[in-house]
Amino acid sequence: MREESNKKSKLSWSKSLVRKWFNIKTKAQDFHADCDATQGRDGHGGEWRTSCSEREAGAAKKSRTDRSSKRSMDRIRGGKNDVVDAARLTEVQNYRIFASTWNVGGKSPPRGLNLDDWLHSSPPADIYVLGFQEIVPLNAGNVLGTEDNLPAKKWVSLVRRTLNKNPGSCCYGGYRTPSPVPDPVVEQDADFEGSSRRQDSLSYLHRRSFNLSRSLRVEGNHMLPHPRYCLVASKQMVGIFLTIWVRSEIRNDVRNLKVSCVGRGLMGYLGNKGSISISMSLHHTTFCFVCCHLTSGEKEGDELRRNSDVMEILRKTRFPQVRGASDVKSPETILEHDRIIWLGDLNYRIALSYCSAKALVEMHNWKQLLEKDQLRIERRCGRVFQGWKEGRIYFPPTYKYSFNSDRYSGVRPKEKRRTPAWCDRILWYGNGLMQLSYVRGESRFSDHRPVYSIFMAEVESIRHRRRNMGYFSSRIEVEELLPDPYSSGEMKFY
């Protein structure tokens, strides 16, 4: 048995090396997730789930909810005289998204690392999108050898523990649905496009009420709480790691999960630099989350290499089409999605000398410092991220700090000088996204500070009951909106 196990291990090891060296793309379903969101944890709160099967992944086949929705739509559209405008059958809901990027400097997290300050959001978000860079050291062994996924497991365990703290903890103050009152908007110039309701719509969030029976599970003679958040997708490429968590109540509404990786590192394609993109649908709105680590360097002209990285990521990222579902949107590229959030260590620097930049930092003169920010310059010139948006920056540069301190590197004689820069950024593209905040964390764990943003996202969903329907839909019978008698699951009414 041991010999067979060793043979399988060696075969798997050699296959992974061949895929890495020859830039063979991974399958769209090649990611980790909590396949059954209703199952409880093992008591440790940090298990590593294996990749979902094609049936469970959501990208290969539709869920019962999706099939029920399709049958309802087919029956509604079927009659010659009963054609109903699709816009009148949908409603817009608002979901809070917490998006963050953190270059952790190749350090594996200790078990007791406190993530409360970083992941704290009041009220808690519906979706957490967490992108990491350098979760392993970018040495030859990790870049050319087999993938070390132990640090990724540790980060997943820490995030799971933090998001699923017991109700009443100091971080979250018990179970809460998203607040109807949005946070103060930090980015004054960011319009909530594509919405006629704008700010008023945020005051009335349509959510399912909290159901105590759904929040508990039985283990022996004890009632234990279900995890409030579950992992829907996580993917690692060398040091880049992207993980997405959602509230357990909306797990079944997340479908069509697919992943696409683009390497831009050694030889132009290895994964020490590049991107991981995850595509998914929430109800009938498509999302794409991109986590990247672009080319480093402070020399003049390095920003052009970063521009090239962005263009190649946009060009090479491809998601397979969903088969046999004409009514399901299946974007193939990043820009074909309805809502897009791009985050990561973009590595754009400040076009100033170390001394000049340091003087502006000490004066907290962010406005003048931003005038020399390479990303801002390149965007204004139309050379990269055309049509994308970024919130206003009111926080100090996030790179580079001395170890375990609030001091920028280069102050002491033997330290390498690195001009302070906003390397870590979050941008978005598409209508229906409003940025509520754009700030940085203050953890000293790495030489980078984490950056996070909270968005309110509009999501379209199909109505499951008649509400103010007009003449053309008046002939739809009640039973047509009831659960299908042949369905194994029950229709969820909102």
UniProtKB/TrEMBL annotation:
Domain Inositol polyphosphate-related phosphatase intervals: 93-463
Instruction: Determine if Hydrolase is one of this entry's keywords.
Output: yes
One function term, GO molecular function aspect: phosphatidylinositol-3,4,5-trisphosphate 5-phosphatase activity
Keywords, in A-Z order: Hydrolase
Q: Return the Pfam families for the record.
A: Exo_endo_phos2 (PF22669)
The keyword Cell membrane belongs to this UniProt entry's keyword annotation: no
> Which reactions fall under this protein's catalytic activity?
a 1,2-diacyl-sn-glycero-3-phospho-(1D-myo-inositol-3,4,5-trisphosphate) + H2O = a 1,2-diacyl-sn-glycero-3-phospho-(1D-myo-inositol-3,4-bisphosphate) + phosphate; a 1,2-diacyl-sn-glycero-3-phospho-(1D-myo-inositol-4,5-bisphosphate) + H2O = a 1,2-diacyl-sn-glycero-3-phospho-(1D-myo-inositol 4-phosphate) + phosphate
**SMART domains assigned:** IPPc
What's the family? Belongs to the inositol polyphosphate 5-phosphatase family.
Record-linked PANTHER family:
OS03G0793600 PROTEIN, TYPE IV INOSITOL POLYPHOSPHATE 5-PHOSPHATASE 9
Q: What is this protein called?
A: Inositol polyphosphate-related phosphatase domain-containing protein
Organism for this UniProt entry: Miscanthus lutarioriparius
